[in-house]
Structures are given as C-alpha cells and as structure tokens.
Amino acid sequence: MTERERLYELMSARLDGRLGAKDEAELEWLLASRPEDRELFDAMRFAREALSESAEPPEELLTGVMAGVRALRAKKSAMRRRRYIGVTASLAAAAVLAVAFVPKLLKGPEATEPGGEESIAPYGIEPRDVTGPGDSPAVCIGPEGGTPVATSPTDTTAEPTVEPTTAPTEPPTEPPTEPPTEPTGEVFEPEDGDLVDVTVYIPGIYVDLKYATEDNFTGQVIYDFTEARLRYGTVKKLMEVQTELREMGLSLKIWDAYRPTSAQYKLWEICPDSRYVANPNHSGSKHSRGNTVDITLVTLDGVELEMPTGFDDFTARADRDYSDVTETAAANAELLEKLMSVHGFTPYSAEWWHYTDTVVYPVVEE
After folding, report:
1. What is the mean pLDDT of residues 8-29?
2. pLDDT in tens, 171-195
3. I want to staple 294 with a disulfide (CB 3.0 to 4.6 A). Which of 216, 256, 278, 280 is the partner?
4. Packing angle between helix 35-54 and helix 3-16, nearest 10 degrees?
C-alpha cells in the first residue's frame, strides 16, 4: 500500500468514526505534508461538526454516504494505475453530500422566505462558502473534474435525492507518464584503468605541473597541457590520502603525473642520462603508465611545507635517507611517505617526491 492509499484509508475510517488514537496521529502526520488533502478533510470535518451541533445525523444518510464511499473504494482494484483517484472521488463525494444535503434533511419544519424559496440560514451553513484552514475554499468537484456540484440554496426548488453511489464508471484521463523509478542508463563512473583529470575527483588538491612550464631542470616547456591526469584507480587512492591530510589542515600538490611517451622522448633528447631520465627506448618512464605521481605537501592555502629538496633535485639530499636534511623537512617527508604507503603507493628511494601505484598498468598508447 502506498502512502497516498494509506492516507485515504485513514480519512475514510475517520469519516466512519472508527479511527483509533494511534491511527489518528498517523493521519495528522500524513496530512501535514499534503495541503490539498488537508483541505478536503477539513471540509468533511466542518460538515460533521456542524451536524453534531444541531442534531444526530439520520442513520439513512450516514448509511447511504458510507455505502457510496465503500463502493468507490472497491472499484480501485480495477483502476490499478490510478487507484488513488477513485478513493479521492469517493471522499470528495462524501464531503459534498454532507455539506450540500445534510442541512436539508436536518433543518426540521419547512421555513420559507419571500418568494417561497427554502432557507437554510437558521443552521448557518452556506455550502458554497465552506472554507478550510487559512480561508481557502473547499473544492466541490463533479466526476472527472467536470461541472461543480450545485450547492446554492437558490437552486433547491425541489428536494434533492441523495444518490451517494453515483460514481464515475470510467477511470479519469490518464496523466502524463511519470519518469521511471529505476535507472535506465549506465553508471558513468570511470573504470579504474581510465585516464582522468585528477582535479575533477579530488576537491582541494593543488596542481603545478612543472613540465608544462619552464620551471623544471630542462628550463623548457615539455607538455602541451596543464592538467594532471592519472588512472582512475590511482586517483581513488590519492583521494584517501587527501582526506586524511585535510583533517590535519594539509593538502597534496602534484608536480607531475601522466607523461606521454612523446614527452619522455623529448626529455631524453635534452638529457640522455639514465641516472636522471628513463630511457624511452628501453623500459621508459613509469609516468607513461598513468599510475605514478610526483607530489608534495602544502597547507590548505597552498603554501608548500619544508621538504628535503625542491622538485627534480639530483643531489643526495633528495633520497629517502633524510640524514642530511632538517628535522622539519625529514618529518614532513616521512609523513607523506607513511600516508602514501598505507594507501597503496610504492616510494622511489632516490626521489622523496616520487610514488607509484602498486597496481601496474600498461603504457598509455598515444
């Protein structure tokens, strides 16, 4: 049973006078988020309260009204896609009947005004003026949203016949199809092997791609791009490191990430020394696999922390011995090494900034 069906079941039970305290509380909770249903329910309650102040409603009226309600509720199984409309119509009909016809049945001896028209003024009920909370008029609708039910006292030249079981025999016009509740498309999260822009997936990470500038050991611009790209599986590991660092008030800063093979050849042309540049004609650079990153630590404002050396320093101070650097530099480098190792990266002994994902990927084909 849907939430809407439960709401109408409780409203119908309330009209029957068989709603317990627990169900009454549930009904009020459901009505709190449904102003249109609250308006209908208040119209019904208004009519019932007006009746109770004057006289006990005739048994035949209550029996007839509720027969109509039950008859319409029974039809909802044949209207499975629009079941709630059948119940809504039954409750609206019950409210209209209670507001429009009960005063006539209970008004007692016939009272007339000049012109011979009947008057229901002694009971203080004007059906066309029934209002709910906030003075919002209650809507009296006919079948399938047609002509409003006539409730004006000036139209009552003859005693109306109460026919609560007259309900629409055909379901109302189908509304536009609602969006499907189940996903129909594919999930577009990248595969672990996909090469992605790191900044898209790691908020707050800093990127200063050194080989996209002249600020590197060659003094030349090597890359024709400025974004740091890595395998998505590698990026997910960096996310974990970044999360822990942000709790400390720190962040990662990337100096180098994926390096195209063509860029590796260019570096080799400038510096054909395998002590500093991997020979692309042999094993090539791990950066070309998209799982290796050159990285350092900065504050959340982007200020670099003290480290053993700067980027691409080829002296002994750049190794992971840390015996020839300050205590602060050693502590910062060791913090970075610890976090990167815990989250699946292998450090390179000769360069404190260099880390490779333990998951091996092939060289990216250009």
Report:
1. 77
2. 445 444 444 444 444 547 899 999 9
3. 256
4. 0
Q: Is 167 helix (H, G, I), strand (E, B) or coil?
A: coil
pLDDT score for 223? 97
Residue 113, C-beta contacts closer than 8 angstroms, at least 6 positions apart:
119
Among 60, 351, 365, 366, the one annotated catalytic: 351
pLDDT-based confidence at residue 282 (cuts at 50, 70, 90): confident
Q: Per CATH, which fold does 195-357 belong to?
A: Muramoyl-pentapeptide Carboxypeptidase; domain 2 (3.30.1380)
Percent of the chain beyond pLDDT 70? 61
Does residue 211 have a pLDDT over 60?
yes
Query: Whole-prediction pTM value?
Result: 0.51
CB 208 within 8 A of CB 254: yes
Q: 77-108 burial by CB neighbour count: b if 16+ within 10 A, else e?
A: eebeeebbbbbbbbbbbbbbbbbbbbbebbbe
Task: Give yes or no: 28 in active site.
Answer: no
The residue-averaged pLDDT of 104-129 equals 41
- pLDDT for 195 equals 96
Q: Nearest to residue 126, comparing CAs of 107, 153, 159, 94? A: 153
Contact 293, 343 (CB under 8 A): no
Domain with CATH 3.30.1380.10 in the chain: 195-357
Residue 283 structure tokens: 């094993």
Tokens representing 188? 């577009």
Task: Quickly count: other Cβ atoms within 10 Å of residue 74's Cβ.
Answer: 11
Query: Of 94, 66, 364, 101, nearest to 231 (Cα)?
Result: 364
